């Protein structure tokens, strides 16, 4: 007999209007099913629409197309039986632990005694017995997140949505809270039937989930589903666990590799309208140096590198892909290796590194080349930042345009392609030719 279906997401699309009548497509054709007894993970980079999808599932936002059904009923507003735990704790600082947890029950209009009894039971369940009268400011981050869990669980939801609930915590606190949650889940002590976990931590997804859906970015689509058939409790040192982590890293880089293979290219191409990640040159240089040193000697397995550097997907991938864009590394099949120019960068002093970086910017980052060309052509050798942001807004949102200009400004300064005055928001050539 099939396990009962709690939630069904069919062809969900979400787009936001942009100036000029265009639209920003965030989610496209997303499908997923949550069955009773499952923890399903949504894994992907920032910008893949995972949090937007959670808001649609919870009824806090409506899809542009497609539908969400919960227990056979279309979700058209906040759904009773679906609760959410947020990354940022979202506690009211002027309320005690008990008062924060009671809020959801008060909204249901339950009798006062039942509200208090259920709230105290939830607080005890998540390990905060004795802290009922404490205020959030008196609690550590892990304890505050436990209050967030209690507040979600106290309404006895069928589905718990978790939006990166451990990412704001330090490593040890997050591990402790994950372990406690999984123990309660496996023992059947939680009043929930299914969980959807949004994360960008690959090990966390393999540790907690029964299935993992990998999302692409811009727009967010489910590109792969991976079943995690390991028994609980799961051991990170288990070869099967390690193999799954490695497979997910490979899958997350495979789509880009397939696109390059179709164009018979080794490196991704970019255009003026490419959104650039705000990655510091210190991180770029640091990753090159780490790859060049022992034990990697120019080539590394991405999961191993991430573990050694204690970096998660959202931290490592933007750095690695920026270096790939600049032709300083290659990424293929879950591996990363230095190119000839990447090795030269690692070996040279800072002045030569700047020259290598500047040539890479001029060759492979059209926006950097465009800014330099405008400055060269103008008699004043100056140009306002707004000119370039306005141009980018033909391709992306205003926020993305601002972040992209921030990124290229930092890179251009390092390569000494141009100068930038933050007060006047003006680009210039310090030594015009």
In short:
The chain is α/β, with parallel strands linked by helices and 433 residues long. It has helices at residues 50-58, 97-107, 112-125, 141-153, 171-186, 202-208, 239-262, 281-292, 302-309, 313-325, 340-347, 350-364, 366-377, 385-392, 398-414, and strands at residues 5-17, 23-35, 39-43, 65-70, 73-74, 82-85, 159-163, 194-199, 211-215, 222-227, 299-301, 329-332, 335-338, 382-384, 419-421, 426-428.
Which keywords apply here?
six-stranded mixed beta sheet, 15 helices, globular, 43% helix, 433 residues, single chain, alpha/beta, four-stranded antiparallel beta sheet
Helicity, in percent? Answer: 40-55%
Largest sheet: 6 strands, mixed
Based on DSSP secondary structure assignment, what is the total number of beta strands?
16
How many angstroms separate the termini?
77 Å
Global geometry: globular
In terms of quaternary structure, what is this? single chain
Rg, Å, rounded: 24 Å
Distinct helical segment count:
15
Q: Approximately what portion of the residues adopt beta-strand conformation?
A: 15-25%
- Going by helix content, strand content and strand pairing, the class is alpha/beta
**Average pLDDT level:** 86
The side-by-side strand order for the widest beta sheet comes to: 6-7-8-3-9-10
pLDDT under 50 segments (min length 5)? Answer: 259-269
């Amino acid at each position: 007999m099939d396990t009962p279906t709690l939630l069904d997401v069919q062809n969900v699309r979400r787009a936001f209007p942009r100036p000029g009548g265009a639209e920003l497509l965030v989610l496209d054709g997303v499908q997923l099913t949550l069955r009773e007894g499952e923890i399903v993970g949504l894994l992907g980079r920032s910008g893949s629409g995972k949090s937007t999808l959670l808001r649609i599932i919870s009824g806090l936002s409506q899809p542009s197309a497609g539908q969400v059904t919960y227990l056979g009923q279309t979700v058209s507003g906040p759904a009773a039986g679906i609760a959410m735990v947020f990354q940022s704790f979202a506690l009211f600082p002027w309320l005690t632990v008990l008062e924060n947890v009671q809020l959801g029950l008060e909204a249901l209009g339950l009798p006062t005694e039942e509200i208090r009894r259920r709230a105290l039971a939830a607080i005890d369940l998540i390990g905060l017995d004795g802290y009922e009268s404490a205020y959030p400011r008196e609690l550590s981050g892990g304890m505050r997140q436990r209050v967030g869990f209690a507040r979600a669980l106290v309404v006895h939801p069928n589905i718990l949505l978790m939006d990166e609930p451990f990412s704001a915590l330090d490593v040890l606190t997050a591990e402790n809270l994950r372990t406690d949650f999984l123990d309660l889940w496996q023992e059947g002590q939680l009043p929930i039937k299914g969980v959807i976990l949004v994360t960008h931590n690959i090990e966390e997804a393999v540790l907690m989930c029964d299935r993992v859906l990998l999302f692409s970015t811009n727009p967010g689509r489910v590109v792969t589903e991976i079943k995690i058939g390991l028994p609980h409790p799961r051991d990170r040192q288990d070869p099967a666990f390690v193999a799954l982590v490695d497979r997910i890293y490979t899958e997350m880089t495979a789509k880009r590799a397939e696109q390059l293979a179709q164009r018979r290219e080794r490196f991704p191409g970019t255009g003026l309208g490419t959104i650039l990640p705000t990655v510091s040159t210190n991180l770029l240089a640091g990753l090159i140096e780490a790859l060049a040193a022992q034990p990697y000697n120019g080539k590394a397995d991405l999961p191993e590198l991430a573990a050694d550097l204690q970096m998660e997907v959202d931290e490592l991938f933007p750095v690695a892909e920026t270096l790939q864009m600049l032709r300083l590394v290659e990424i293929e099949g879950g591996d990363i290796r230095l190119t000839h120019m990447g090795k030269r960068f690692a070996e040279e002093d800072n002045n030569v590194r700047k020259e290598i970086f500047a040539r890479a910017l001029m060759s492979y980052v059209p926006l950097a080349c465009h800014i330099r060309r405008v400055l060269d052509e103008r008699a004043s050798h100056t140009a306002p930042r707004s000119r370039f942001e306005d141009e980018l807004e033909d391709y992306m949102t205003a926020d993305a345009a601002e972040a992209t200009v921030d990124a290229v400004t930092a890179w251009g300064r390092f390569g000494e392609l141009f100068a930038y005055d933050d007060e006047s928001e003006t680009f210039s050539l310090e030594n015009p030719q």
